[in-house]
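Hello again,

I reread your note about wanting to compare the complex against the isolated chains. To keep things tidy I'm splitting this into two emails, and this first one only covers the full assembly. Below are the input lines as submitted, including protein chains and any nucleic acid or small-molecule components. They are followed by the predicted structure of everything together. The single-chain runs will come separately.
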Amino acid sequence: MAELRFELVTPERQVLSTDVHMVVVPGSEGEFGVMAGHAPFMTTLRDGDLTVYRTAGAQPERIRVSGGFAEVGDRGLTVLAESAGE
Amino acid sequence: MASLKALKLRIGSVKSTQKITKAMKMVAAAKLRRAQSNAESGRPYSQRLSDVVSSLAARVTVGPQSPKLIAGTGSDQRHLIVVAASDRGLAGAFNTNIVRAVRRAADDLIAQGKDVQFFIVGRKSRPVLQRFFPGRIAGQYDTSEMKNPAYTDAQAIAAEIMSRFEAGQFDVAHLAYSNFRSVLLQEPTVEQIIPVKPTAPAANDSGKVAAAAVEYEPDEEAILADLLPRNVAIQIYRALLENQAGFYGSQMTAMDNATRNAGDMINRLSIQYNRQRQAAITTELVEIISGAEAL
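Full-complex prediction:
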């Protein structure tokens, strides 16, 4: 199974840029999971936790994000957040 | 001609000045590295954001319902220039260049019969602007406590500007700052930030094709309305970062020149000092010898 390219960027720095299995993103109209090959999609985020599964069945990592939006394109998932912390 | 003692004092004073400028240069160099990496790590975000905003803006038809930030207020009579300069001097022509660019822009606008006001960020640009454009300074944001620009500062400045925009105090906002090209080259820039300029269609075609099939949630307009204020903050943040890096670059160059000039001056003064000392010794010898001969 192909990996999903995942980038998490804040105005201060690039927090993460890595290949992961799946990310669950807190969209403003509901959470959604993104895996490799997701259709192009763009949404604003509500404040909440990103859940990152590095590999299938791995222990999820949670990253708190606030104020931002997510974009899924052929380059993978990019989350632009105003702040992000563990 | 200066006495030997005066020359010696002079050399001492130039030497201590040189020590100071050298220390400042090294401090600026260290801070520059930090500021430069800050500026660079801020770029991906602003790049992505402006890509997204311009691709969205291209898809949304501008109408009366559009957010004011993109459609404008329907007039371009009153301009606000946000001037981002530094809080400290001793950085060569850094602030002068920014202020000069601002004055040129402001003079152009005034010549066209527009109203121009200034919003000052960083206190160094204030005195000059006050002298040339008295009574046009609309506000100021104090950054003197700020060591490294934080995003929260940019947000605060953006909030201030947005609230003035909402209150209808101006129609068009420009942002003046110094673009950090390299240590030796900083480019004073004046950009329009409100309303968002209609951008040319995205340069890379692949991005455009992808954008065509993108699903939006909520719809484009809602996302745009959410992103536009954020875009203003990001632009200001980027300006602050570029300014910071440019300031230290400029300071480093200025202090390097000052150190070198002080070195030249010390050389010149030392030669003069040694010549005079030699002349004094020769005179003394001549006096002694002629005194001995007279006996």
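For quick reference: The CA atoms of residues 92 and 254 of chain B lie 5 Å apart.

B.
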